[in-house]
Amino acid sequence: MVTSICASLFAVWWFMPTPTLPLTDSQIRTYQAGHVLESFWPKLSERQQAWLSNVASGKSNNHEKLVEDVKKTYSEIDDTQANEIAE
């Protein structure tokens, strides 16, 4: 019985693939982009969130209405505030 348990553990250890770490450059960039998206996603309007979701899924590439929304949102700020937002 002990032998069969040891043999099973050895078989699992032997046949398990080795992890593919470290991450590739592409995977790291994807992770970083996701982290940035998480930081500003709540600040977007529902329309902007829906548009980005549609673009990501390939359902939309029309950005004219989104640009209009952004102009309305940020038309009241000055250059200093715009630079702070960009940072």
Describe, in plain words, how this protein is organized in 3D.
- The protein is mainly α.
- 69% of the residues lie in helices and 0% in strands.
- It contains five helices and no strands.
- The mean pLDDT is 76.
Give the structure's gist in a few sentences.
With 87 residues, the chain is mostly helical.
Name some characteristics of this structure.
87 residues; mainly alpha; 0% strand
Q: Which class best fits the helix and strand makeup?
A: mainly alpha
Principal-axis shape equals elongated
Instruction: Please state the CA-atom Rg, rounded to the nearest Å.
Output: 24 Å
Distance linking N and C termini: 64 Å
Helix share, percent? 55-70%
Low-confidence stretches: none
Look at the structure and give the mean pLDDT.
Answer: 76
Order of helices and strands: HHHHH
- Number of helical stretches of at least 4 residues: 5
Largest sheet: none
Total beta strand runs: 0
The share of residues in extended strands comes to under 5%
